[in-house]
Amino acid sequence: MKRIFATTVLSALVMGTALAQELRSPDGNLRLEFSLDGEGTPIYTLQYKGQTVIAPSMMGFELARTRPESSSLHDRFTVASVDTGTFDETWEPVWGEERQIRNHYNEMAVSLRQDPGGREMVIHFRLFDDGLGFRYEFPAQRRFSYFVIQEELTQFAMTGDHTAFWIPGDYDTQEYDYTTSRLSEIRYLSEKEITKQGHASQSPFLPTGVQTALQMKTDEGLYINLHEAALVDFPCLYLELDDQNMVFNANLTPDALGFKGFMQTPCTTPWRTVIVSDDARDILASRITLNLNEPCKIEDTSWIHPIKYMGVWWEMITEMSSWAYTDDFRSVRLELADYETATPNGRHGATTENVKKYIDFASEHGFDAVLVEGWNIGWEDWTGHTKDYVFDFVTPYPDFDLPGIRDYAASKGIEMMMHHETSGSSRNYERHLDAAYRFMKENGYNSVKSGYVGDILPRGEHHYGQWMVNHYLYVVQEAAKHQIMVNAHEAVRPTGLCRTYPNLIGNESARGSEFQAFGGNNPNHTTILQFTRLIGGPMDYTPGLFEMDISKYNPRNTSKVNATLANQLSLYVTMYSPLQMAADLPQTYGKFLDAFQFIKDVAIDWEVSRYVEAEPGEYVTIARKEKGGDRWFAGSTNGNEPRQSVLDFSYLDPGTTYLATVYSDTPETDYRENPQSYEIKRYLVTSASTLKQYCAPAGGYAVSIVPVTEDTPTKGIKRLK
Ligand code: NOJ
Ligand code: CA
Fold first, then answer.
1. CA distances from 274 to 223, 271, 292, 481, 691 (A)
2. What does the alpha-carbon distance between residue 227 and residue 207 come to, in Å, rounded to a whole number?
3. Which of 514, 533, 539, 542 to mutate to test the pocket of ligand 1 (most atoms within 8 A of CB)?
4. What distance, in Å, lies between the first and last C-alpha atoms of the chain?
């Protein structure tokens, strides 16, 4: 690890562009320039290989409640000093896309002083080969110790009407299909999307607002990705487009009173990130978001591990069965006694008998865990008006024998995964959290899926505001104390915090597979998520749907899964997550055991990853080597157009022959009419081989690549050139 510092103390505190400061990335391709304009406003620009990525853009804040002092924290600055340095380290994540991550950047810290008043603010820039991170620091200072942000004024000025892959600015949900359009079309299309897809009831609507990570492509072929890293004690960042000038203005999630951050010095903001390359694969390979987070704060991480799981879940999502135990009442009941006299509705999913079937199947096929939703009392009124006290997270329904199931699972080598639906009442959750976690540990549960469906309590707070951002992190920190792994749904989208708290093994925070049962996802959805949502951290997307006609499960549900069966297999490789679910029903997998074999085999923790082919919205092909083993797995996920994918094997050990098993679409596969058409072919491959493989729209393929040993039957198997 190296850190070299140089300090320039500027003798005169001069305003104006004359004092432009330049910073270059280690490879020299990125060039950042910082200056103050005539008003003393901080301005930055970013170039990549001589092309402008970010045109001159301002930085700073508008403050609230500052009288008699000025509310402007964006002008009248002078530069007090500039520190530059270089940093280079390699670190090992507890789990991840690769065993070792290099964190290499040049940095510059510009210390600013505002006159009059003397407020101090430092802007930190880190320039990596793959992009830029910058953030604001407010050192401890006597005359500026508490402040309230009215708005962050950071800009990202684009150089043209780029193509963007975006979802609308909604402070409460990210569960949208992505729209691919020119920036200039956002205003018109956003309203259409919000009307079509609906938006969370509490949320104001930002007409030209979009969420991050935002992926763009310029007409010159530059890929630009805007996001944030280390979102801690601060509201989530939105980008509001000034579509006359193609400038994105920061827009922070407001609190219930409309304020955008209560701050106490010393403090920092999250990092704002710009990942940039002329090769889309570099966006997927970028580790900027993780690198800008602090090292792991959990000392003993031996209890944190990747998990492959099944769940009593899809049957509720498709409405074959219910989370609730009874239809008798719709008011808040927290007493078990209320249920003892209630009539079971006959559709409850989390019954002891049903759960045991899942445990049997998961155990037989080598899974780690089984999730059960709807096991605890309260689901009769979980979205009700009085929801402050809906769930207590410790009382099972009368037909769920928790100790019996726990012991049965343990005898079969299966861990039970806890479910905590908070119904958005974070107040209630915090009230019960410690008891709920203790209850989990007493019963052998080491991981929890949590959820925040519905309007947030305290009322008026948004899912992505500062208050809730603090709540989600508090929950993860408390969980770590109990050695519990967390997978939070409907929480704020991740910003790389899993580096610091690797017990945060998953998040949803995007439109997951569940929407395939609520009308379907865009066919190319899983070729965009890698460039957007996954930039911040892994997603519990819950792949593995084999029955695409939901009416087969529930005649009243006419939704269709917009994917082929082979596409579903590819996702285990192309959508990185240490937490992977086989989301469909055991009886369905039972009909396709040959294809299911890939889900059983695929690794969930990786030594290295190779990004073979990528174009947002069109295709993503990735090959990965399992951690602690010699097997490789590859996946290619395809978008709207039929295509031939080319998978090279140059990354394989040159001296070794491997058996490649390819699970793919066929010429007959059609995600609407014939999604279950797939074929399984075997080849002998070496590092010199290349696979050319047809992919249907919304299709793809998955490959397991295993070194050939004396015991491998190779007779009659074709060698791939
Ligand atoms: C929404 C989650 O995304 C889903 O997975 C869960 O089953 C329901 N909420 C109920 O908690
Ligand atoms: Ca959800």
1. 10, 10, 12, 34, 34
2. 19
3. 514
4. 43
Model confidence over 396-449: pLDDT tens digits? 999 999 999 999 999 999 999 999 999 999 999 999 999 999 999 999 999 999
Residue nearest to atom 6 of ligand 1 (CA): 451
Q: Which of 194-203, 250-259, 297-306, 361-370 has the lowest mean pLDDT?
A: 194-203
Beta bridge partners of 210: 168, 239
Give bridge partners of residue 621 from the DSSP assignment.
613, 636
Task: Answer yes or no: is the C-beta of 451 below 6 A from any ligand 1 atom.
Answer: yes
* Cα–Cα distance for residue pair 630/609, rounded to 1 Å: 13
CA distance 407 to 676: 37
**Which one-letter DSSP state was computed for residue 425?**
B
Residue nearest atom 10 in ligand 1 by C-alpha distance: 421
Q: Is the shortest distance between the CB of 514 and ligand 1 below 6 Å?
A: yes
Helix (H, G, I), strand (E, B) or coil at 523: coil
The count of other CB atoms within 10 Å of the CB of residue 84 is: 18
3-state per-residue secondary structure call for 447-508: EEEEECCCCCECCCCCCCCHHHHHHHHHHHHHHHHCCCEEEECCCCCCCCHHHCCCCEEEEC
Closest to 237 (Cα-Cα) out of 171, 283, 191, 325: 171
> How far is Cα 60 from Cα 43, in angstroms, rounded to an integer?
9
Dihedral of CA atoms 515, 518, 523, 526 in degrees, nearest 10, equals 0
**Quick count: other Cβ atoms within 10 Å of Cβ 486?**
25
Q: What are phi and psi of 214, to 5 degrees?
A: -100, 125
Whether the CA torsion 178, 182, 186, 192 is positive or negative: it is negative
Angle at 216 between CA 54 and CA 672, to 5 degrees: 175
pLDDT at position 192, please? 83
Q: For residue 530, what are its two tokens?
A: 């890698």
Which of residues 66 and 99 earns the better pLDDT score? Answer: 99
Parallel, antiparallel, or unpaired: how do β-strands 632-638 and 700-707 relate? antiparallel
3-state SS, 140-188, equals CCCCCCEEEEEEECCEEECCCCCEEEECEEECCCCCCCCEEEEHHHHHH
461: Cβ below 6 Å to ligand 1?
no
Task: Tell me, yes or no, if the pTM score tops 0.90.
Answer: yes
Please give the C-alpha separations between residue 159 and each of 18, 243, 490, in angstroms, as whole numbers: 24, 12, 34
- Tell me the angle at which helices 352-364 and 402-411 cross, rounded to the nearest 10 degrees: 10
DSSP state of 547: -
**646 Cβ contact list (under 8 Å, min separation 6):** 613, 690, 691, 692, 693
Q: Per-residue DSSP letters for 336-400?
A: HHHHHTSPB-S-BS--HHHHHHHHHHHHHTT-SEEEESS-BTTGGGTTSTTGGGS--SS-B-TT-
